[in-house]
Amino acid sequence: xxxATGNKRIFADGLRNPNGMAWEPQTGKLWTAxxxxxxxxxxxxxxxxxxxxxxxxxxWPFSYYGQNVDxxxxxxxxxxxxxxxxxxxxxxxxxxxxxxxxxxxxxxxAPFTQGAFIGQHGSWNRDPHSGYKVIFVxxxxxxxxxxxxxxxxGFLDANGQAMGRPVGVANDHQGGLLVADDVGNRIxxxxxxxxxx
Length: 197
Fold this sequence. Notes:
Elements: E1 18-23, E2 30-34, E3 46-51, E4 63-64, E5 68-69, H1 78-83, E6 89-93, E7 97-102, E8 115-120, E9 133-140, E10 143-144, E11 149-152, E12 166-171, E13 176-181, E14 186-191
Antiparallel strand pairs: 1-2, 2-3, 3-6, 4-5, 7-8, 8-9, 9-10, 9-11, 12-13, 13-14
């Protein structure tokens, strides 16, 4: 969108519910966390993070996770399904991944130096629950390169009740990761432990 003229165009579409967005520092590509559709099972459909291609189509509402047809959509649209781009990285079904930020140079130590932090608000309709944590996805060469690592957990009590739900994540540029929690009504700060003298 041009702020001066109001002229605008669609950059990409078919992303059902993109939330956190950030620029990957090595490649300069735009990435987003996407909440996929509900009500086709506890293990479908995985939420994901993906690079966003200019002009790209990501499937909604006709297909999910690339070209997997959602048979509930009527009428179907095979030509749109054929164009659907598969996302880069699944972060689990119904995790409600809302926040996304990339590690910065002043941030946490290894292994949290190169990759993406994702705030997972948590499932409302999955058994067992999923999400309710902050994860880190390591990157190499501008792409995900390994399994997710739990960064901040413990938001569910022994009865499965939410004591907190992570939403936004941001670097504080002083070595910490800030996490907004909209149930606990808190901002958490994750930082490296200080060496003992």
